[in-house]
Amino acid sequence: MHKHFIGGEWVAGHSASPNTNPSDLSEVVGEYAQADAALTRQAIAAANGARAIWARSTAQDRADVLERIGIEILSRREELGTLLAREEGKTLPEAVGEVVRAGSIFKFFAAEAMRVPGELAPPMRRGVEVAVTREPVGTVGIITPWNFPMAIPAWKTAPALAFGNTVVLKPADLVPGSAWALAEIISRSGLPAGAFNLVMGRGSVVGQALLEDARVDAISFTGSEQTGRGIAITAAQRLAKLQMEMGGKNPLVVLDDANLEVAVETTLQGTFYQTGQRCTASSRIIVERGIYARFRDALAQRTRELRVGHALHPSSQIGPVASAAQLQQNLDYVRLGCEEGAHLVHGGERIRASTEGYYMTPTLFADCDNGMRICREEIFGPVATLVPARDYEEALALANDTRFGLSAGICTTSLARAMDFRQRAEAGMVMVNCPTAGVDYHVPFGGRKGSSYGPREQGRHAVEFYTTVKTAYIAA
Ligand code: NAD
Would you say the CB of residue 250 lies under 6 angstroms from ligand 1? Predict the structure, then answer.
């Protein structure tokens, strides 16, 4: 059984839960301990106990620890990628890519530990110096979703530690294996006992205990908008610092002047890869009338050719859906789309592969209206909706007509349209002739409206959330 990591020790939980491979339901990836609220509070106490020592560590100490973690992750990319693919279901190349990203993030923040910004403000009074410095926030509770089981724990844990905070990580209960492997690497990195803790278990138990405990100074959450709303209320009641990344209903606009091949490939990549289980996936493809029929037919053809299969099989392009509940949700949305009058061009069915798993065909709906529920609610599966638009202005209005605002893309050969879209798209990230999904770790990640709350993650902007500013007046 894989245990929790608390106060520098491996600790058994009050129960354990099996982690099943969505590509092959007969395979158990491992047994993982489950914590209750009392054990979570033990981890919070351990993190609090290590605060002073880690906050006083030197930039070199922190950089060395993070560098070691990053190097080990990168050197074990195939093995860790295989574990990730087995527990979450993304294909092996996608999973290895995610592991590489996690390792690179630790190396990036190893360097950032050396670059904590500060300033000396010009004096307003003679003989008085004004210094603005950044300090750790304290103990950070990290709550992560199942779709990036290693990269998201990495992109929250690395900056937290780099800037001198201590951590209690609660990964998604569906995929504890990658987070456990990350914790095991961190456990040998030279961190003081208690500076990093892993507690596995249910959101309503472990997550809730983290949210309610006044010793947790800050909460970084990634997950659904619905869970996020509840978290925001609980965190606000005790004035905890909060950062949240949530869902998306990302538009990709295809204009008449687009390169057809680029538009089709960009759509396929952004919509169906990683089984559509990305918060940045393009799910509303808004297409100008002049190119609509040609684009729909070319996209349908390429969608039919996608090979769905076991995540570890070399020929698979699209892995299974991650869980039975997610598969059922996807199929329910397909049924709803048909009832709402969208035209089902391809897919929408559960299928069999060489092993029994949660496989479904990539699904393409055409002739959708942006008011349909399949165009308004996050499906979080391999389902694309094509929405026709009269012209660019209507396409832009449709793109912005959503309660989310994470990523927005456009395929066009017009520099003027691309520039206009970049300025007027109501999203945190804009892509021109690039998929809406697939962003780098050295730049900020996040959105607007119902997609994000609080400061940005990743890149140099991560310092905003994981530090607190102090202004000091010093007279000799
Ligand atoms: P979820 O909201 O169901 O769960 C996310 C995490 O919150 C899990 O660890 C869960 O155990 C925990 N949780 C659940 N209830 C809780 C509670 N009451 N208190 C504290 N914690 C609780 O989301 P999910 O199904 O794991 O992930 C899919 C969602 O995540 C999608 O909406 C997707 O768009 C979003 N997501 C967003 C980003 C982003 O950066 N914007 C990235 C990846 C995924």
Answer: no
* Candidate list 245, 288, 378, 457, residue with the active-site label: 245
C-beta 234 within 6 A of ligand 1: no
Kindly give the number of the ligand 1 atom that is closest to the alpha carbon of 143: 9
Q: In the prediction, which pLDDT does 13 show? A: 81
Ligand 1 atom closest to Cα of residue 326: 25
Q: What is the dihedral angle through the alpha carbons of 357, 361, 365, 370, rounded to the nearest 10 degrees?
A: 30
Question: Which pTM does this prediction carry?
Answer: 0.97
189-233 residue pLDDT tens: 999 999 999 999 999 999 999 999 999 999 999 999 999 999 999
Q: Is the pLDDT of residue 285 over 90?
A: yes
Domain spans, the chain: 4-246+451-475, 250-432
What is 250-432's CATH topology?
A: Aldehyde Dehydrogenase; Chain A, domain 2 (3.40.309)
Distance 380 CA to ligand 1 centre (A): 12
Amino acid letter, 213: D
Q: What percent of the chain has pLDDT over 70?
A: 100
Is 279 one of the annotated active-site residues of the chain? yes
Torsion of CA 378, 381, 383, 387, to 10 degrees: 20
CATH level 2 (architecture), domain 4-246+451-475: 3-Layer(aba) Sandwich (3.40)
